[in-house]
Each structure stands twice: as C-alpha cells, then as structure tokens.
Amino acid sequence: MLKIALIALTALPLFAGFFPSTVHTSISNVTGKNISLRSALPVTGMSGVVIHNYGNTLQAITRTLMQTSPGKAKLLENDTIIHDELPTIKTAVRAGDKVIGGYLYNNVLLLAPDANTYAKVTSSANKNWIHPDLYALFLSQEGEASPSRENLAIFAKKYQVGLIYIIKKGSAVLLDPLSGQIVGKKGVSGMPSKAQYPFYMRFDEIKTGWFSKGSKEGSYYNMVESL
Fold first, then answer.
1. Which terminal residue of the chain has fewer beta carbons within 10 Å of its beta carbon, N or C?
2. pLDDT tens digits, residue range 27-49?
3. What is the pTM of this model?
4. Which residue intervals of the chain are DSSP H helices?
C-alpha cells in the first residue's frame, strides 16, 4: 500500500500547475508512424523529440512526435531543425530510442493584450520568455501582419520556442506550436477592454510592406480566438 501511495505522490508534479512538465521516456514499439511509449506524456497533444543513440556518445534528434492518447503517439512530418547547412537525418525511429516530451517547453512566447498584462504574466512564472518584439520582426520579414498557427510553427522551429502562451478575454491557453494542439488552459479575469493589435509589442505596428498579408487594424481578442 505504501509503494502505491509513493508512486501516486511522485506522479503528481507532472500534472500540477498550468504548464505541462518536460518528461523523459522511450519508445517501446514502432508500427509505421504509430508509436508506443514506455510511459505516457503528461498531456495528450503534447509534442516531443526522438533521440537516437549512434554509439560512441553520439546522439541526435531524428524526429518529432505528438501524443495522441496516453502512451500512444504518432510521428510528425515537420523537420525538427531548420538549417540549410545541415544534412537531413534519415535514421528510422526504433524501439529503444529516447523521447523528450515537452522539449523546449521552458521557452515561451506570450501573446498578451497590453504591456501591463504582459508584465504580470511574465513575472508570475520562471520561464525563458521570448519577447514578442522578435515575433513581430519575424512577421514583418515574412510579409504577414498577424499570428496564425502556421507562422507560429515556423517561428517556433526557427527560434527554439516550445510553447505559445495566449491570453484571451476569459481564459489563457498554451499552444504547442509543433503539434498545433492546446496543452493547457485556465480561466482569467480582469483583462483590459482595449487591447493592442495584433498583440503587445514595443512597436506601433508591424511593417509588412506594400503587399502585406492581413490588415494593420483589427481586434486582438477576435484574432486570438481564431488561433
């Protein structure tokens, strides 16, 4: 009985709080793109990286995956690392490969309605907060004026972002940009009625050029509801 109680207590931190924990496990079986994990990740929809051991202390990330149900996952199509100078890794995923679920989940981009909300949220959790100015510059270079799941996924891979923290009118959600799934949600209140569009940043607007995609005017709250 004591052993069962200890197991239950040690499992609690994985589910406590708003942010899912980064966890380590391994692959027990591979059938095509379908994966069985030796232990489940904390949240369904959570992404992870597969690490293959080549021997002689050489390891490499070979693929990304998403948990589809407790202990079950599927391989994702997107590349793990964006770098034109690196060769594409073609190593097949095998039983025994390590998995890090919630890889880079400590690196978080926050989309907030104003500076005050941004300051409150970022001071409330010890995370590596990726400033939205960097995302605004990225959108400007891409010729886009507002966030989408597609450009968030590209930005996340390019700048090593693990989670997108999105403040809505009455809730806050965590988007895993690699899987495209919501992996955390909680209620919030007292959000400002007037919000900066498309999100809080230290620029007046995102300059996207003559042929920009999207509008410079809009509603922050309507925009984040569409993500």
1. N
2. 999 999 999 999 999 999 999 99
3. 0.85
4. 2-15, 115-124, 132-142, 149-159, 220-225
